[in-house]
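User: Hey, quick favor. My workstation is busy. Could you predict this chain's structure for me?
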Amino acid sequence: MNQSLSKHQLLESLRTSRAQWDSLLASVGEERMTQPGAAGNWSVKDIVSHVTAYECWLVEWLTAAEQNTFPAPSPLDDADVARRNARVYEMTHARSLHDVMTDAQQNFEALLNIIETLHDEYFSNPQSTEWFMKPYWNTMNTIPDTVINLSVDHYDEHIPSIKAWIEKSKEK
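Assistant: No problem, here it is.
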């Protein structure tokens, strides 16, 4: 758990992880971003869409919390991760690479912006977030935990398969 992360530390962690993620994506090259096989049948573009969907969900959720309300229902409001991920793939697979990459950058900037606007109390007093955390996450009880899980850890989850796919494609 990352309960001790301040807003500033969380933002720095996000920026550092995102820079590594962006560097890896740049090494793939635009011409290979849509080739399947980076994670099962998914292309790197599909992985980017997948991660972006979760970051967008996080932005919507944190924005609603900042406005003292709950977010509108989302296609990602499903406890079954496999079903949720399949839904994201169905919704995003046909999108253009340009649109996917633009959305990824815009959603990441929106994530940084909403974190900047959140009340400092949400970082210094985890009990202040209980009202909007409990309905969604029982085990992640702080904003840093939730953000790290849905963003930083999500990059880390997919980096090995992308790197392996890059290496495998070099062998061909």
